[in-house]
Amino acid sequence: MSAQVILQPNRDKSLRRRHPWIFESAVAEVKGRAKLGDTVDVFDSEGEWLGRGAYSPESKIRIRMWTFKKDESIDNGFFMRKLETALALRKRLFNSATTNAFRWIASESDGLPGITIDLYDNVAVVQLLSAGGEKHRSKIVWAITKLLPDVHIYERSDVDVRKKEGLEPVMGVLHGTPPSQVTVLENGLKIVVDIETGHKTGFYLDQRDSRAAAGYYAKDADVLNCFSYTGTFSCYALKGGAKSVTNVDVSQPALDLAKHHVAINELDEDKAQYINKDVFKALREYQSEGKQFDMVILDPPKFVDNKATLNRAARGYKDINMYGIHAVRSGGFLLTFSCSGLMPADLFQKIVADAALDAGRTIKIIARLNQASDHPIIGSYPEGYYLKGLVCEVTDD
User: Fold this and answer.
1) Which 3 state secondary structure label does DSSP give 303?
2) Fewer CB within 10 Å of terminal CB in the chain, N or C?
């Protein structure tokens, strides 16, 4: 029999709205033994059963909910149902002939808190960031292999956030013989994904729609791609008719792969430049030189790790956007992003607007960009919305 968690009085409202988290402060009592990742039954202060979740004794998020159905067990069938449902949605979203890489499981939004699965052709990369995911690793692998018999599975749970769950970083082969790199298709473009050492699970699938938008806006433009990583924004820009692209990143291996991407997609290599430099430094140099571009892409790493760092992150976003706005020719475009879930969309817009004021320029927002459709946001978990992007016309008016 599983342990029982009793909530404090009046701490059941979010759970009744099916929010998947229960914080440490909401727990009144634990009846029975509950170890890391164990499934526990959750009751309100009056003894009414509310749901079933994974217990994490070291995390501020004490329980991550698996189910609100009393007759649903957390067994092989549970994980099979969740993965099958999520896969069916993704197959409806994409034409596999042109796009064969997508987020299969988007954690809470697909009913599997703390679990991410990205599929790169026939390689599944799994990231388990919660005690519950850790506990049920074998069931998850079993379900993946049942649904995709020819799949290779690699784990990239090498993320610091696991420490908050009392877990050590883990990475390695879970099934089959996954290659260290796999070439996938995205909207017909070839992209090499480094599943062992690349960022996150190897690639930023969430920016798929934004990359396509960049291709649309890049026609006849000189493009500056900041924090360019492996240069996929630039490939879309070149495909869309850009006159030139300049990739700026601190990682030389990422820039080398960016150069390779231009080559394997048979794009004009003479139109692409690669600069190994800190983006802040490069933008300051462009400002001092008076150098400008028709389009500037700002896709920085996450600046906000927790609420305590939000103010500092806001200053960072303001600085980078001010320099970015300086680098846009009058009448050109700025594509700017925040991938920080703790950064509200309205605050991000205000930061970019303030950066324009500081730069002495005028911005006009002509489009908003968000995480791609394989990163859905379940209605009961608004925190699932994290990627915000703005397309702005920049003028001297």
Assistant:
1) coil
2) N
For residue 206, the 8-state DSSP code is G
pLDDT of 250-283, one tens digit each?
999 999 999 999 999 999 999 999 999 999 999 9
Contact between 21 and 48 under an 8 Å Cβ cutoff? The reply is no
- Contact at 8 Å (CB) between 217 and 239? no
pLDDT for res 341: 82
Amino acid in position 284: R
Burial 333-357 (b: 16+ CB within 10 A, else e): bbbbbbbbebbebeebbebbbebbe
Residues 6+ apart with CB under 8 A from 47: 6
| pLDDT tens by residue, 373-394 | 999 999 999 999 999 999 999 9
CA distance 59 to 279: 35
Residue spans of alpha helices (H) in 171-309: 208-217, 232-239, 252-264, 279-289
Tokens in use for 67?
A: 């189910």
Angle between helices 310-326 and 279-289 (to 10 degrees): 40
pTM over 0.90: yes
Tell me the two tokens of residue 140: 């998850």
Q: Which residues of 125-151 are buried (b: 16+ CB within 10 A; e: fewer)?
A: bbbbbbbbbbbbbebbbbbbbeebeeb
Q: How far apart are CA 166 and CA 273, in angstroms?
A: 44
Q: Is the dihedral of CA 73, 76, 81, 82 positive or negative?
A: positive
18-25 average pLDDT score: 97
Q: Which domains does the chain have, with CATH numbers?
A: 4-67 (2.30.130.10), 76-183 (3.30.750.80), 204-395 (3.40.50.150)
How far is C-alpha 362 from the geometric centre of its chain's CA atoms? 30
35-53 mean pLDDT: 97
In this predicted model, what pLDDT tens digit does every residue of 324-344 receive, in sequence order? 999 999 999 999 999 988 888
Among 314, 333, 324, 330, CA closest to 359: 324
Per-position DSSP letters for 124-141, written without gaps between them = EEEEE-SHHHHHTHHHHH
90/155 Cα distance (integer angstroms): 21
Pair of tokens at residue 210: 């934004």
Confidence of residue 301 (pLDDT cuts 50, 70, 90): confident
**Alpha carbon of residue 283 to chain centroid:** 25
